[in-house]
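Weekly modeling sync, notes
Attendees: S.R. (lead), two postdocs, one rotation student

Agenda item 3: backlog of single-chain predictions. S.R. asked that every request posted to the team notebook include the full sequence so nobody has to chase files. The rotation student volunteered to paste the first one in as an example of the format we agreed on. Action items at the bottom.

Example entry:
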Amino acid sequence: MISGRDRAAPDVQDEEKPSKTQRKRAMHELQALGERLVELNPEQLAAVALPEDLREAVERARRITKREARRRQLQYIGRLMRSVDPEAIREKLKAWDGISAGETARLHRIERWRERLIEDDGALGALAGAHPGIDTQRLRALVRNAREERDAGRPPRAYRELFRALREIVWEAGPTEDAS
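Predicted structure, as returned to the notebook:
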């Protein structure tokens, strides 16, 4: 005869263990994450810290053209993904997708600097104070060209180039720098 205490023990284990549906959902998510890795360009893939066997499987999947063989390779990548921390990979992908809150804040900060530089002559001094060692002469020329483009109604080539220059400056400063 089974005592009440013995019958309760399996129920506790069942509650702690995820259901089969939850496990399958997690495996499909890992497989989808692996598929995203296959879609990355070589520079992005190199920036993601992956175990060597997973990196080789991803590179092999890129070379496979037959549908069924590719599907099996993606399943294999999903299985290898179980031994990796997926959160680091997800965060990296979110940053590249522009979804990351920190990345979004950084882009807004760059846009605020760009607008301040175009509207206010004294903003370049404030930027140089916040980021010592920047090339103020180049930035001054970019700001002047962006103003001329805006006033003449020309395409915003210098405006975009100013954004790229500011992105380099803010990127070197790090995510915690508040530039506005």
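Discussion: group reviewed the output briefly. The two ends are 73 Å apart (CA to CA).
Action items: rotation student to repeat for the remaining queue; S.R. to check formatting next week.
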